[in-house]
Amino acid sequence: MDGDRRDSDGRAATTGHGVVIVGGGPTGLMLAGELALAGVDVAIVERRASQDLAGSRAGGLHSRTIEILDQPGIADRFLSQGQVAQVAGFAGTRLDISDFPTRHNYGLGLWQNHIERILAGWVAELAVTFHRGREVTGIAQDDTGVDVALADGQSLRADYLVGCDGGRSLVRKAAGIEFPGWDPTMSALIAEVEMADQPTLGIRNDAIGTHGFGKREYEIRDGEVVYKDGGRYG
Ligand SMILES: Cc1cc2nc3c(=O)[nH]c(=O)nc-3n(C[C@H](O)[C@H](O)[C@H](O)COP(=O)(O)OP(=O)(O)OC[C@H]3O[C@@H](n4cnc5c(N)ncnc54)[C@H](O)[C@@H]3O)c2cc1C
Q1: What is the CATH number of domain 2-174?
Q2: How far does the chain reach from its first CA to its final CA, in angstroms?
Q3: Which of 135, 165, 190 to mutate to test the pocket of ligand 1 (most atoms within 8 A of CB)?
Q4: Contact residues of ligand 1, CB 6 A cut-off
Q5: Fewest CB atoms within 10 Å of the CB: 22, 59, 118, 171?
Q6: Phi, psi angles (nearest 5°) of residue 53
Q7: What is the Å distance from ligand 1's center to 112 Cα?
């Protein structure tokens, strides 16, 4: 199929793929790995120059996610770097799933920086082309595939395109797919701050709402703040 890949003007595309995935976050990385294992010619286009994240984001994995990661045999890569714990809950009530019929009857505490780093390491072992530091600016679909325009003026050609480019997905909007729902009725703010004193840690519900402090573990190395969850300062 590679030799037949042509752009919308009928020119043979030099950089064609079976599937182009826009976005190399957790979703795009996982899909790329699964497609590569299935023998599909797949490429990721990611605008971030590296896998680093500026903030903490997600703090771990639930049991079902660990089961999914077990299928291609990579669950241990995550388990060996995180902290196993009973983390399931509903409406503030903790649920102990240690008697559930699964090999992974627990959750895992592991920051998203590490989750993405481990996934990217797995993808790098597979036949996945990774276009890093490149941003998709538009897509055009025709009868035989999709042209993918990049910010640097170049383009890719794909039989199929998948948008894994986050909540404000350019691919979703360009494909005319709506994101229906209701206007938000509440908002949340997350801040990573330095404090002079140790605050009381944990979640509170009181007159000003639901709020709390959690701790990011860090150490000073060569005068630099290095977070143990792998995040960067600033
Ligand atoms: C501040 C914050 C806190 C969060 N806290 C939690 C939490 O506590 N628990 C939890 O479970 N989840 C949390 N999340 C959500 C979690 O981070 C997301 O669910 C997860 O990152 C979604 O993964 P994804 O791969 O679908 O999308 P993303 O992680 O958004 O990845 C999309 C990727 O696409 C790339 N991209 C976007 N547009 C383009 C383009 N045009 N061209 C090329 N590349 C592009 C982006 O650079 C990005 O790497 C938090 C998110 C944020 C922002």
Answers
A1: 3.50.50.60
A2: 46
A3: 165
A4: 22-28, 45-48, 55, 57-59, 112, 135-136, 164-166, 170, 190
A5: 59
A6: -115, 145
A7: 9
Q: Which long-range contacts (CB under 8 A, 24 or more apart) does 66-69 make?
A: 66/104, 66/107, 66/108, 67/102, 67/103, 67/104
Band the pLDDT of 106: cuts 50, 70, 90: very high
Phi/psi-derived region of residue 133, left when phi > 0, alpha when psi is between -120 and 50, beta in every other case: left
List, in sequence order, every residue forming a beta bridge with 212; answer none if it has no partner.
Answer: 203
- Model confidence over 195-207: pLDDT tens digits? 899 889 888 889 9
What are 191's two structure tokens?
């801040």
Q: In the chain, where are the structural domains located?
A: 2-174
Residue 101's alpha-carbon distances to 7, 22, 79, in angstroms, are: 50, 36, 18
What amino acid occupies position 61? L
